[in-house]
Amino acid sequence: MVILVILVNTLMSLILLYVAWRVWQLKQQLAYITDRLTAYESCTHAALNKAPENIYLSQQNIYNLRQKNQVLQMQIQQVRQIISLLLLGRQIWQRYFRRLELTPGKRTVGK
User: Fold this and answer.
1) Smallest Cα–Cα separation from 21: which of 33, 45, 29, 59?
2) Dist. CA 111–CA 108, nearest whole Å
3) What's the mean pLDDT when you consider all of the chain?
4) What burial letters (b/e) apply to 60-96, b meaning 16+ CB within 10 Å?
């Protein structure tokens, strides 16, 4: 009977030792996972900490670029209008002088 008690106690001790070893392994894995998650959180915090300020600055830069673009668009439109007026003036000039050259009485032959 004593041998049976010793065997049962030894068996229970081995089972509990195995369970303790598995719990210790689980604890190690959880500690590793915790360290990794802490590192990820730190990196994420560092990256996102300045995000609102960066977004605001980007919005300001976009607004400034749109304002500059609007001014440039107006200048481009003015240059196009000037070029159109110059081309129109050139066409009128060419038509007027062509008519003067083609008019028979206005030509002068070398003196």
Assistant:
1) 29
2) 8
3) 91
4) eeeeeeeeeeeeeeeeeeeeeeeeeeeeeeeeeeeee
